[in-house]
Amino acid sequence: MTPENARLHQLRGGLAPVEVGARGIESLARNADCTRLRAIVITGLTPSKVIEHVLGELPDAMSPFAMTLTQAFEKRLLSNAGGSLLTVYREKGHLDPQDAKITNVADLAPRDTQVDRIRRERETRRLIELKLRGDPAAPNLILKPRLTLTIVGVTHAIELDYLVASDREPFYRVGVIKSYADRVGKTNRAHIRTACREASVGTLALQQLLTSLGQPVELAGDRIDMVLKAPGSFTPRLYAAQRAESELASLTRALAAAPSDLDQIEQMLPAGASLAQPEVIEALPNHYCSTCKEHCALWQHCRAQAQAQGNAIILGDQAAEQLAAAGSLNRAMDLLNGSGRPPDNRAEVVLAAELRAASTLLDRIANG
Amino acid sequence: MQYRQIMQYQCTEPDNVSASIPKHGIAWKSVEDYTGIMSHTLSIAEKLTRNAEKLQQAYAGLAKALGVGDAVGRERAQAKIAEYNAEYESLAEQLRFAELEAREIATPRGRKPAKPLRELALDALDDLGVPAPPALIADLTAALTGIRPSPSRFASLRRDEENAARRNVAARPAWIVPAINAAELTAIPRLLCSSAWSLERRIVGSRSMRTDHLRIAESLARRLKQLREAGAPESKNIERLLFPIARAIPGATETGVLVDTDKVTEAARAELSVLEEADRAERGEACARFATSSPHVRLWGRPVLIDTAAAARAIK
Does domain A64-256 have CATH number 3.90.320? Predict the structure, then answer.
């Protein structure tokens, strides 16, 4: 066990680590200011696991309809030797008829055991090395590759949907399969950003692998591929080589702060305390925002804490921004009613005037 | 008149009952057959009893003839013993078959013990002709026999086969073995094949996933064509199985049109012609590297080496 692993083991307080995966690591970048989420993910736990094993509650389960849809779409693309995926790439001209080398890493070691997991990692690395050597046997499509991402000295495994490269290209791009309905310009932007960030976690892992092999990081690039579903059918729609540099940058920033966070978390906890204790979880500072419910199972706890503190964020991002000068809902109410201490500064004076004007307008609309 | 109608209802009741018995219960016809066969087995048993009595009498006659030194009587007794023994053999066989038949009919139709899983898998693999995943083997078995073995059972089957072959590799003509990875010559547990196949056929190279996919499409298209020509109802099942496979081959299918087997074969062959040579060369090369390996390694692949340093770095 590495020294970092021993520290993380101590922080988890006996809870077994879980594979946070690309989705877990991606969630760090979504709310980079949330110390609670970072502490949980960096130590190898997930908010769902904390809810279940530490707080003793039932975590939010993914909708069975959504889960079935996602699994069915992924199966449709990856089954039959990845035939559907290969066809989509060929139709768009990204792969030639000779680019038919496909490897499914999960076929080699399918079980969810430590031995098989390591074997999948090793096989993925071997296949990537083939490509770097320019070996003609290097696959064009690597299905279900397993890469590792080192954070605070320990490796977190991530299993991606696929890696793709034609024989002409020097290196692989990360591809994600999402069952979101593709409505072209009207596709939910948050969904697209999530998919890009998840793929970017894979790109970061590829960058780390290239560094360890003494290869230039630029080979991994900042482009990702995304396959969405046509509305009302399972027809795949490919968006190849999408630029994801901002997602990659936000992830890099979030992870760059991680080593100091481990020290910070250790210092924040009392001696001998661990994340397996509910009071320790509650004491870790959080940063609740309206998007938390999209990715974090702890959002209800954090919202309740924000409400108890009178944090304006519970009214939404826009209200939080407008009431920022007051600092809390109680102070905003004081400014509106003219109660409590007088405005401390110019910003509070302006806010008090705006609140009173809005209240008068509301009163006129409501009462005539 | 009324009485006759009631009698008719009573007479027709068994037929109505048999029609109303649920699908998964024991059909009325089967019960009738079962009782018929039961009476048949009883009569064989009676015959066997009588045969045993006759044998006893013949042995008594033999003992008597031997006691008095009657050579003619001894020969007659010996001939009778031989005759009754032959009759006994025949009756015993008849009884065994009748009992087996009775047991089969007594089993509800949906749960009738079919061929063992390994036999079903070997049949499906021989149909496909290339390494295949358990799900496809199960789907093909279901399409042709109506019985779908659970794909999750194939992992334990493969392990059982390996253990049995370790004890005596010659015990069975064919084993279910994993495909072999051409690069490392290790097993690919999720792809199964028959040990009766040549080593080259069991090896999976970098292009083999695609070439095997094309060969599967070709063999299913051939099977579908045969079934359609014979007007077999299974053709619908095979068509359903072939469609997603053929859809992943450019030019093999058209939207809203039934699967054209000739078109599928043509498209698969056209793509195979581009890939086959390189694939065969890679498999051949892997075969050559396997030349000095033991028979067991040639069937189940080389043992896997684990990177313990990576295991130490992993989060735990």
Answer: yes
